Amino acid sequence: MVDTRNLADVRTVAALLHQFGLREKVPLAFGGGVSLADLPGLERRDLDMVDIGRAIIDAQLLNLRHDLPLVETPA
Fold it and tell me: Where are the strands (E) in the chain, listed by range?
């Protein structure tokens, strides 16, 4: 879980996971003040999950599902 709202941190963590051959085994989540408006830009990131809980905790119920596309990488 990268909970900094800093996309540079996500790139760093993802790169390290790939470097050590762990990315396929370790789910990568991102959060820290992420809003619904941020979601469209996050779909191109190397992420498995996005946490928007606290940012909308007092909002009306919103039924949301966002499937991230599976990207095959060459071996």
Answer: 29-30, 49-50
What's the rounded Cα separation, in Å, for the pair 3 and 51?
Answer: 9
Closest alpha carbon to 17 in 8, 9, 26 = 26
- Cα–Cα distance, 52 to 61 (Å, whole number): 13
Tokens 């909308």, located at residue: 56
Assessment of whether the complete model's pTM goes beyond 0.90: no
Supply φ then ψ for residue 4, to 5 degrees: -115, -10
- pLDDT, one tens digit for every residue, the chain (75 residues): 998 889 899 999 999 999 999 999 999 999 888 877 888 888 889 999 988 765 555 656 656 677 878 888 877
**Which residues pair with residue 30 across a beta bridge?**
2, 50
